[in-house]
């Protein structure tokens, strides 16, 4: 995937999430769970949809990254 790491305080800060601008998704780790979230433009229904959810891997936020 073409994920970009988004960090606080520039490139040396803590990882906040991974963003894929092509698919308009973000990857978030929260309480030892990984969530892939699709960002939607339909503000009437919802602005996001969780499309992937599983326990986080120790070595990476996104299991598809190598």
Shape descriptor:
globular
Oligomer: single chain
Order of helices and strands: EEEEE
Work out the helix count.
0
User: What does the main sheet amount to?
Assistant: 5 strands, antiparallel
What low-confidence regions span 5 or more consecutive residues with pLDDT below 50? none
The assigned structural class equals: mainly beta
Overall structural domain count:
1
The main sheet orders its strands as 1-2-3-4-5
What share of residues are in beta strands? Answer: over 45%
User: How many individual β-strands?
Assistant: 5
In whole angstroms, the N-to-C terminal distance is 9 Å
**What is the residue-averaged pLDDT?**
82
What is the percent of helical residues? under 10%
Radius of gyration: 12 Å
Summarize the structure in short.
By secondary structure, this protein is mainly beta.
Detailed description of the structure:
With 66 residues, the protein is an all-beta fold. It is 0% helix and 47% strand. A hairpin with a 2-residue loop joins strand 3 (25-30) and strand 4. The N and C termini lie close together (9 Å).
Task: Jot down its keywords.
single chain; 66 residues; mainly beta
Give the topology:
Blueprint: E1 4-7, E2 15-20, E3 25-30, E4 33-39, E5 48-55
Antiparallel strand pairs: 1-2, 2-3, 3-4, 4-5
């Amino acid at each position: 995937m073409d994920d970009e790491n988004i960090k606080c305080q520039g490139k040396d800060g803590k990882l906040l999430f991974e963003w894929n601008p092509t698919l308009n998704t973000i990857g978030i780790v929260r309480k030892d769970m990984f969530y892939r979230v699709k960002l939607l433009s339909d503000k009437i229904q919802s602005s996001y949809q969780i499309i992937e959810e599983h326990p986080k891997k120790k070595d990476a936020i996104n299991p598809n990254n190598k």
